[in-house]
Amino acid sequence: MAVDRSRLPAPGAAQAVRFPAVGAHRLTSGMVLRAGRHPGPPVVHWLLLWPAGTASDPAAQPGLAALTADLLDEGTRTRSSLDLHAAVDRIGGRLGAQVGADATMVSLTTLERHAAEGLALLFEIVTEPRFAAADFDRVRELRRSRVRQMRMVPAAVAERVYLETLYPGHPYGHLGIGTDAALAQLTIDDVRRFHRAQYRLGAATLIATGPFSEAAVGDMAERALGGLPALETDAPAPDVRPDAGAPGPPPARLVLVDRPGAVQSELRIGHVAAARRTPAYPALQVLNMVLGGQFVSRLNRSLREEKGYTYGVRTAFQYRRAPGPFVMQGSVQADATVETIREVIEEMAAIGGDRPVTRPELDLARSALTRGFARSFETAGQVARGVAQVVQYDLPADEYDRFVPAVTAVDAPAVTAAAARYLQADRAVVVVVGPAAQIAPGLDALPLGSAQRVDDQESAA
Amino acid sequence: MMLDWTRQTLDNGLDVIVHEDHRCPIAAVNLWYHVGSRNESPGRTGLAHLFEHLMFEGSLHHDRNYFTPLQQAGAAVNGSTNCDRTNYWEVLPANALDLALWLESDRMGYLLPALTAAKFENQRDVVLNERRQQYENRPYGLALIALMSALFPPDHPYHWTTIGETADIRTATLEDAHAFFRAWYRPGNASLTVAGDVETERTMDAVRRHFEEIPAGPAVPPAEPREGAASPAGGVETERRLRLEDRVELPRLYLAWRTPALFGEGDAGMDLLAHVLAGGKTSRLYRALVRDRRIATDVSAAQNSRERAGWFCITATAAPGHGLPEVDEAISGQLAALAADGPGADELERGLAQVEAQFVYGLQTVGGFSGRSDQLNAYNVFTGDPGFLARDRARYRETGVDQVRYLARRLTPGRRVALSIVPAGDPRRALAGSAPAGVS
Lengths: 461, 440
Hints:
By secondary structure, chain A is of the alpha+beta class. Chain A is built from 16 helices and 12 strands. Chain A has helices spanning about 65-70, 80-90, 115-125, 135-150, 155-165, 180-185, 190-200, 215-225, 280-295, 300-305, 335-350, 360-370, 380-390, 400-410, 410-420, 435-445; strands at about 20-25, 30-35, 45-50, 95-100, 105-110, 205-210, 255-260, 265-270, 310-315, 325-335, 430-435, 450-455. Chain B is built from 15 helices and 12 strands. Chain B is globular and about 60 Å long. The mean pLDDT of chain B is about 95. Helix content of chain B is about 40%, strand content about 20%. At the A-B interface, α2, β5, α4, α10 and β10 of A face α2, β5, α3, α4 and α10 of B.
C-alpha cells in the first residue's frame, strides 16, 4: 500500500484553537490578576507587567527604565544579591526582566511545587529592591561597556540609527539601553525615583499561567501580597504613558554608517507605520507574510533563494501602542547593497500598486497564519506573553478567539488597501552599516538624496 | 518526569519513535541523520551543512522548495547541522502530519534526481553569506574556528567547524553533494520521532506507508567510538596561546580544554563544574571577576559535550581599564581553589537544581530544537535508548563534591588553549607569548 506520490497530501481543515480562558479580577491590593490554566508540564510562569517602558525614559535620561529593571535582582531589603539568587536557584527559577518601548515585564518561571515561593520572591524583588550605591555603580558601568561593545555589532548600530532617524526627538527614538553619555550622568536617586513612580503594584497586572485553577492562583497571590509591608498599592495608577504623538520628519532618507572593509551591509529600510490597535491589523499581518514575513515571501524568495545575496531577509510591522516602525532587515553581501535597496523599495511600492497580492499568495499567507496559530500557545510562557499583549495594548479579552476568523476574512482588496495606506515606499528611510568606500558611489545613484554619514559612536540626532 | 514512547525499526533500518501528548493539537516530526561535519574530510569542510540547505530545495515528486506547502499547512520548519548529526523538523497542526511525513520520506528516498547545479550554486552563495553574517562580520565571530583548530589536531574531525572553510565551500561541487547523500542519507542511519497529538498505532502505520519503500542501501560505517579517558588532555600536552585581532571594543579571553565526550565518564561532572564556575550571579567566577574585582564585564563556562570528544571553555571579557593577564590570573586562581578544596555542598546543590530545571523546561515543547522529539532522537542516536532520560538525570545526581574537585584538577594551564581576541592593531593586549591564529 505505497503512498501516492503524484500529489501532496492535503492537510485537514484548520482546527479550532481555544486560547485558555483568562479572567481579569482585581486583588485587594488593587493589582489586576489574569490567570490562565495551562495543562502543560509542572511549570508555572509568573509575569508582572507595568504599562511603562523605554518610552517613559525622561528625555534627557535614555536608558533609565532599563537600568532600573537591571538593578532589580541586585538584592532586596532583607536579602543580599547573593542570597536572592541562591533562593531563585534553589527553586530552579528563571528570573527575567524585559523592558520594551511600552511596557516593563518582570517574570519568574519555576516548577509547580515552588509556585508560592516563586511568587513571593517576585513580589519582593519588585517592591523592595535594595538599590545599593555600589551595585548601581557597577551595573551602570557594565551597561556603559555594553553600549561601547554594541558599536562593533552591525545589527545593533543599524537598529539604533534606524530608531533615531525614524523618531527624532520622540519617546520611541532610542534603544532601551540608552547612550553612554546619558548613563554616565544617571544617579542612584534617579533610579529610586523612577522605581517609586513606575513600579506601583496598583498599576501592575499579574499574569499567571500553569497547571492550576484561577481560584488557587488568586489565593496564592493574596497570601503573597498580604505578607508584604504597606505599599502604595491603592494609589491610583498615574498615567505614565508618554505623549507619543506623531514624530517629526526624518532628518534624511539615506543614512550610512561606515564599517571599513566589511564583507556585508547591514540594512534597515522602512518608516513609521502602524499601532497595534489599528483595525487593519489582520490585513497587515497577511500583507507582511506576502512581502517579507515568512521564508517564501517575495523578498526572501528573490534575495536569498534566487539571487543568493543573503542568509535571509525579513520584514515586520513592529506594532506599538503608538505607530511603530515597519522595517525590512537583513544583512547582504556588500556588492549587492544597492541592488537590494532598490528591490526592497520597489517591492514595497508594487504590492500596493501594480503587482497586488495574488490568489496563491493570499491563500498561503492566510493559511500559514491561521493553521499555525495553535503553535503559538504550547507553553505556559507563551500563553503568559499572549496575555501580556492583551494588557499592553488594551486589546479585547477575546482577541485570540477573533484572530483566525479575522485573518480568514482578509481578501485581496483589503491587503492592497492596507499596503496603500501603511507602506510608503516613496518616503522609506534606508540605514546602511557597511563598507562606505565600496558602496557609497552606488548609493549616490539611488533617488534618496545625499547620504547622511553617521559615526558608529555618535548619536544621529 | 517521564516520557512515554514506542519504538519500532522498519525493515530498511529506520528507527521510528512515537510519543503521545494530547495537550495541544499539534504534531512534531523530527528526523535525525547520524552525520555531521565529523564525516567530512580536510579540504571538503562545510559540506554536511551545505547539504542540509539542499534538503529544502525539492525532491523528485515535489521538485520545488519545501517551505511553501509546509507553511501553507501552518508548519514551523527548520533544520540544523553540527559535528555529529543533522536534524530536520516540522511542527504543524496534527491533522497535517501526513504532509510532513510525505515530504521527509520523499527527500530521504528521492532527493538526487531533483538536486541540480542551479540549486547547488544558489545555496552555496547563501551559505557563504551565512558565514559572513554569523562568523566573519560579527565581533568575536571567529573564536570557535580558532579554538577547534587548536584543540583538535588536523586529522581529528573536530579540527574544523561545521560552517567550514570558505575556500572549501567555494570549491565544493554538485558531485560532492550527490556522493554525500549516497553515503550517509540512508534509513538505517536515521531516527524519526513523531510527537504530540497523535495516536501511536495510526502514526506507525502512516510512517510505514511513507518510508517502508525506501531501500536500505549499503550499510553506513559505524561512528568512531567515543574517545576514552586514557588521554585526558586529548593531545594538548602543553599550553597553546593564540591571538586574533578583530573589530572589537574590549579584549576577550577564551580558555579551553579537551574533556570527556557526551555521556562519557566525567561529562555530567564537567557540566556541573561549569555551573559552579559561571552559572549565574552566585557562581564563583561571576562573583570574583564581575562583581567583586570588576575586572570583567561578563564570564561564562560550558562543557561542550560532543559524541566523540568534549571540550570545556571559560570565556571572559576584560572590563575597560583592565587586561587579559589580570583576567587570566583571576580565573586560574579560582580554578586552583576549586581543585584544592572542591565546591561546597550548597554550590553543587544549586548547580543540580539548575540542571533539573533545564530538563523540565526543555521538555515543555514537543517539537523544534531541543523539544521532546529532538531529545528522544538524541538519546536514541547517541545511546540507542530513547528512554535514556532517567539515566541522564541520574548521572548528575550521582556526581559528588569529590568528583567535581577531581575534574577541576584537569583544567590546568599546561593543557589548555588560551585564545585572546583583541582590538585590531593592538596585539600586545593578548596574553604574553600568543601566536597569531590563522583563521579567516
